[in-house]
């Protein structure tokens, strides 16, 4: 198979994901906060935009993908860390944490989700905010992905086609492939990913167990009301004082 490198794929990410209402929603929150942690920051587009928009406080992006982070690291005026959400070791340092671009759905197992929420909670001050979105399982977005494709010109001017195929849906986890091809249809690389589509009740139980209270909830990033048919479950949660007792929040 001809190749398309990890670095090329990381650079292509920004081309395939132009700024939209999600970006504006999170950017508003970031600009209103003093110290911000972007978990699963990818190429760092949100924090780069926040700095460009005049944010003068602490901005820290964390991502486990070294190639995505290499794109982010071209900007030296933001702090970048390699790692997963679960491995975060901050303590009471941020007043806002975000997970944009459905990064939250990469937390596929209960164990990883619980460890990640606990680490994000630890990283926040009391009454700090955690904002993220996850796709509503009732809207079944994956059914539209299968066989879909889009054409793009990458950062080096190369024309590519990116196409998606759903391989399997097991419980609330969808496994799909993203195939990058050249203009003649030759496959250059195939990436496989798992995304979890957590239902709202289960989501809220996990948040509560991690000492988060839901402050606001929307069906999309322009603060539309959440309905059964909403594509997104957008959540702004507040970290509450745990008081050392898990019982108060669930288990
Ligand atoms: C679709 S990208 C979104 C990137 C960025 N937030 C944005 O909106 O441009 C999802 C990101 O989540 C990261 N990710 C995957 N597993 C993760 C984990 N366990 N903890 C933190 N980030 C993770 C991936 O490396 C990837 O960069």
Secondary structure elements and their pairing?
Layout lengths: L5 H11 L4 H11 L3 E5 L5 H8 L5 E6 L2 H7 L6 E4 L11 E6 L10 H14 E12 L6 H4 L3 E5 L5 E12 L2 E9 L5 E10 L3 H10 L2 E7 L13 E8 L12
Parallel strand pairs: 1-2, 1-4, 2-3, 4-5
Antiparallel strand pairs: 5-11, 6-7, 7-8, 8-9, 10-11
Helix pairs in contact: 1-4, 2-3
Bound molecules: S-adenosylmethionine (SAM).
S-adenosylmethionine (SAM) binds next to loops.
Describe the structure.
A 7-stranded mixed beta sheet has the order 3-2-1-4-5-11-10, with helices on both faces. The protein has a 4-stranded antiparallel beta sheet with strand order 6-7-8-9. The N and C termini lie far apart (about 50 Å). It has helices at about 5-15, 20-30, 45-50, 65-70, 110-125, 140-145, 200-210; strands at about 35-40, 60-65, 80, 95-100, 125-135, 150-155, 160-170, 175-180, 185-195, 210-220, 230-240. The model is unreliable at about 245-250 (pLDDT under 50). It contains 7 helices and 11 strands. Helices cover about 25% and strands about 35% of the residues. Helix 2 (about 20-30) crosses helix 3. By secondary structure, the protein is an alpha/beta fold. Bound molecules: S-adenosylmethionine. S-adenosylmethionine binds next to loops.
